[in-house]
Design brief:
Largest sheet: none
Radius of gyration: 16 Å
Strand content: under 5%
Oligomer: single chain
Number of strands: 0
Distance between the termini: 40 Å
Shape: globular
Length: about 120
Amino acid sequence: MDMRGYQRYREQSLDTMTQGELLLLVYDELVKRLTQAELALSKEDYPVFEESVERAIRIIHYLDDTLDRQYDIGRQLARLYEYFCYELSRVKAGRNKTELERVKKMAGELRASFRTAEKQSNQR
């Protein structure tokens, strides 16, 4: 398989996505990493668990860096992202499955909210 063709296809796909679609892609990756962490924790595969949590934290930092804090929603999301990072740091240190599930659920709900907003904006 020609990987250059695949790479060009991926780049073109990313170039044609709306901001909302790109945001959903980032949230999908966040939920995926949290799911990986959850599975790794249940299998007691701690290196994969820690890397998955660390990657989720990096994704949240990226989301935080892209916020426009001049708007109230941006400031509220910044506080939520700070909370996520704090909880995930605790999850990583204590291997706390309950807190991991809670953060994953909240991230999934946030992703669903953004997905609904993206669909509504496309209908206009």
